[in-house]
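Recap slide: Glycoside hydrolase family 95 protein, sequence and predicted structure.
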Amino acid sequence: MVFFFSGKLFGQEQGSKLWYQQPAKQWEETLPLGNGKIGMMPDGGLINEHIVLNDITLWSGSPQDANNYEASRYLDSIRNLIKNGKNDLAQGLIDQHFICKGPGSGGKQWGCYQVLGNLTLAFDGKTALAAVQNYRRELDIEKALVKTSYELKGVKYNREYWTSFADDVGIIRLQSSKKGQINLAIKIDRPERATATTKDGELILMGQLDNGVDGKGMQFKTRVRAQVKGGKQLVQGQSIVIQQADEVLIYVATDTDFKGKDFERTTTETLTKALKKSYAKLYAEHLQNYSTKFNRLSLSLGRSKDNLPTDQRLLAFGKEPDQDPGLAALFYQYGRYLSISSTRLGLLPPNLQGLWANQIQTPWNGDYHLDINVQMNHWHLGAANLGELNEPLVSLVEGLMAPGAKTAKAYYNAPGWVAHVITNVWGYTEPGESASWGIANAGSGWLCNNLWEHYLYSEDMDYLRRIYPILYGAAQFYASALTEYPGKGWLLTSPSVSPENSFKLPNGHQANVTMGPTIDNQIVRELFENVIHAAALLGKQSDPFLTNVSAQLKRLAPAVQLAKDGRIMEWIEDYEEVDPQHRHISHLYGLYPGYLIRYDEHPDWQLAAKKSLNVRGDDGPSWAIAHKLLFWTRLHEGERAYKLFRQLMTPRVDTHINYGAGGGVYANLLTAGPPFQIDGNFGGAAGIAEMLVQSHKDSVYLLPAIPEAWKKEGQVRGMRIKGNHTIDMEWKDGKILNYQIYSPKSQQLQVCIDHNWVAYHTKEK
């Protein structure tokens, strides 16, 4: 029998480490550390160790107004062309008059999330690699700690690396089992726009990024200091040189002037404060701060091949996946670890690469794509008991409201606010630079879904009051910008696209632009319902605007239409697809993350969703595989979902930009598009949770999509469900042995176990 005790999970031991028997051969094998602001990725090199540094706030570019204030003059003409079936001509008109001004996301003013720099530890060069024994490199996600160890000529060397959650510094400790054995030079550099100097025994990296206007963009400063036991320390050129030391501590403090911060003062104060504490105290406070979040949830799925190095474990999983259910538990907890590590309250949400980048030109600018990616980055947080990590996204969205109001007026002559398909830290809301993808205008509505989901988990009324103006403003825009579908009186968006996908017109031409793509119809319906519900909760239901929204809600285009072949239609017309296996599956938004297509309702819609997914196929970039996994979990198809999880665990090494098949994971379990995109990690984590528990406000399914491989035994503690509840449960041979659901006050839920509904009163906690 297994049991829960003192916040820890007991029973079947579940590994919490990624580990390897060799240094990283490429950046995508290095191990990610982060405290929500500072990122470090050490490669464990023996002669030269390279540690890539990041700061979540380090962006080039600057605020800009790329609105075309003449665009609304062309809106009626564009809509009329679409209504008359001339979508290709409408698309051409949009490219001329209805996109952003200037180069958009391809321009320097748009900006890019960039690598901060590279810290190099160059050891004495006497290391005979062939003589190294017992090499091990590991990341312990329970401790937010990376270690490297090896033996050479009778001496054991240990390295520890972590980014402090308490003191906001990166710390590296080097030790040897014999005195006087540590010799190295420490250097810091950056590929461009930075200068490395030394002063008072410190390494200092200072720079200023390009703002795209006059070159005087964001400024930053990084300070590196070392403390030694035994031996000596000196500065030679642009390096700190350490000779014959017993132990070395390296401290990294960094900051930017993001939002006007006094970065030079903060780096000085942060480093000075950290240097006054012992290593033991620094680490104890770091671990306590981190563990407060990480230890809220425990998960075991039974046996685990954690005795294998992680890269070998992935290969073994590919051959015998059912022999290592523990890999899914590790991947889930790794997703939680990555969230805790890549964002924090008061800063920025994780971008396309979370916190970690090794290039000046990060793929896709490392920005925030609003047609699934930033949303997927947050899907797992509610169930993962990390709800407060939604706050940076809320702050980002709040920052879009003012520029989004200008965009709504410029393009649609509408009130409220809108964001299209991409944004950045500078508040960009304009369409992208090409109609084919850039005119998608459901981004703001989709963001509202993330914000609303957090309310459903927390039922925090103060939070609801905070987000209500965001929901209200987005609803204002859509209520004004909807147009009528000819002959049927439906209200829908126009112009828009189904994200990044295209179709064939009867004349044989290809087009992207349409009116009322299915995703828009589903998002607008959901938003209208949510803002009405929120108003009622807040006592604002007498607002005349909401009366109008209620009336429009009845006239919205159908959320789901079935094509002649039985699939769910992606567009308002049953167009032929150009790419039937396109990576985006936007027309199933109502299945996930939405709730329009419920397992216990609309069996015809469920069947149509399955047909749609079967035609799309199971391959794609990692985020698309994760998305499909989530769809199948909502359909309670555990084996199909597990097949997709197995596919997500396919080892990859390629880093080229890929838009089609071939996703998977790198050796460090970061997901590959390729290249590295973190949304696959977060989407996969969301999928694992949905396989175990699915919740609505007053009902919850237990083990709704559990695959055969996980049925033997398992337990979860601390998973959140909607309605401000937390669940602990345990199962064996696919049957629930016991479960408890906790709430601040007892209330009744409907719980589905083995397809049977039972009434359950939650426990007060």
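The CA atoms of residues 185 and 241 lie 4 Å apart.
The first helix runs from residue 75 to 83.
(End of recap.)
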